[in-house]
Write a structure and sequence with these properties.
This protein is α/β, with parallel strands linked by helices. Helix content is about 35%, strand content about 15%. The longest helix is centred in the middle third of the chain and has 32 residues. The structure holds ligand T4K. Ligand T4K binds next to helix 3 and helix 4. The site of ligand T4K has 23 residues, from helix 3 and helix 4.
Length: about 375
């Protein structure tokens, strides 16, 4: 990559062109393009194996998967409609809760890994709470044991938004094995993509047919429609992309690891900059490269660093700013984030997601880090 090319925060992984053409070739013979075709069936099986989970269903995208699991678990139907969740996430998490007629109750996050702080959950539980919906944000694993203990004590469902966590393992256990269900995103910007796509891994086998029916208009059989479902089916071309990308995902993650380690090496000892290195028991997917810029130490805000990178054709992103609880569409609905979730507010004001993808050149990583370091120390030092 030359210095004149723009470096974006992410870059879709793609299989060799010929491999994809070969994969979709038979679709021209069969004319079977969607509705649980042969590619869908193969891919659903392969991805279930890869994630090492017992039950898994494919969806058209990660958001639809989230909405589906909230609906099929009948949350809110017994009058309990509150869901304890994090505001430090992408719009999808909070929107899914609200769009399903449930009420998000925002808990603060931990300052070391930015996931929902288990110590803040119990204080938010009322007789109306039905579920906890934490996010493995950036692929960082939530405090799954503590969260399960709290859920068991209060008879709550646990649904993980694992959109960022494809392939992540904790002590060798696949991330989709925690809680009652986990939803994944296979969007083009993710570590693993099917162009658009998603999945639900779930613990209760008896939910499988309901989930499958919900994603296809609630149709149980040609003359029997049992739920007011939607259309959330993954098509054959997306499934074919998944089949191809899955063959390469381990080497893509290995390349991301090299990129990530260079970032860690370059930035870990810089005053005022926080970078999160995965703990030893976590097999990371290196999905995102968030850093915090502390203005009290650096003398400049995150926005100054963001602008300086932009001037150099580097499109970092403020994932995740603003907090979802501060979105314009939710004005007046939730307590102020400064008082309710002060750590999340602070992290959101300081965070910058730096570019990371498998083919990002190490020389570009060095250049990005140089700009981050020089712009974040330009005033105070
Ligand atoms: N839960 C969480 C926690 C999530 O983060 C998300 C999605 C979901 C649920 C919902 O999953 P999905 O329904 O999306 O499957 C992007 C993604 O669209 C979104 O999937 C993702 N989270 C979110 C964090 O990021 P934008 O608006 O920032 O994307 P965009 O179009 O600005 O793209 C970012 C960069 O990615 C581009 O600068 C270049 C690169 N890119 C993008 C596209 C579209 C590619 O390389 N190829 C592409 O095709 O939301």
């Amino acid at each position: 990559m030359t210095n004149n090319d723009k470096i974006l925060v992410a870059r879709s992984s793609m299989p060799p062109f010929e491999e994809y053409c070969e994969e979709v070739k038979e679709l021209w013979d069969s004319h079977w393009l969607t509705n649980k075709g042969v590619k869908h069936r193969q891919f659903e099986n392969n991805v279930k194996e890869y994630l090492d989970v017992d039950q898994l269903l494919l969806f058209v995208n990660g958001h639809s998967a989230l909405e589906c699991i909230l609906e099929t678990m009948d949350l809110g139907k017994d009058g309990r409609n509150e869901v304890v969740t994090t505001p430090f996430t992408f719009a999808s998490t909070t929107h899914a809760i609200v769009r399903k007629g449930l009420k998000p109750v925002f808990g603060d996050i931990r300052k070391d890994d930015y996931t929902l702080d288990p110590d803040k959950i119990e204080g938010l539980i009322t007789e109306r709470t039905c579920a906890i919906l934490p996010v493995h944000v950036y692929g960082n694993i939530c405090s799954v044991d503590r969260i399960q203990e709290i859920a068991d004590k209060h008879d709550l469902k646990v649904i993980y938004d694992a959109a960022h966590a494809f392939g992540v393992k904790r002590n060798g256990v696949g991330i989709g094995n925690y809680g009652d269900a986990s939803t994944f995103s296979f969007h083009a910007t993710k570590v693993f993509n099917t162009i658009e796509g998603g999945a639900i891994a779930h613990a209760d086998e008896s939910l499988s047919s309901k989930l499958a029916q919900w994603r296809n208009f609630g149709i149980a059989s040609a003359e029997d429609v049992v739920y007011v479902g939607g259309n959330s089916k993954m098509n054959e071309f997306a499934a074919a992309m998944g089949l191809c990308n899955l063959r390469h995902v381990d080497s893509e993650i290995a390349k991301r690891k090299i990129v990530a380690e260079r970032y860690f090496q370059n930035l870990k000892d810089v005053p005022g900059i926080t970078i999160t290195i995965p703990p030893d028991n976590i097999q990371s997917n290196y999905a995102y490269m968030p850093v915090l810029i502390d203005p009290d130490v650096c003398g400049v805000s995150r926005d100054v660093v963001f602008e300086e990178l932009a001037k150099n054709n580097i499109a970092a992103r403020k994932y995740f700013y603003p907090l979802t609880s501060d979105f314009a569409c939710y004005t007046g609905m939730f307590p102020s984030s400064e008082s309710a979730t002060p750590i999340a507010k602070k992290v959101s004001d300081q965070v910058l997601s730096l570019p990371i993808y498998a083919d990002l050149a190490i020389s570009d990583v060095d250049r990005i880090c140089d700009i981050v370091i020089s712009s974040s120390s330009s005033v105070s030092h």
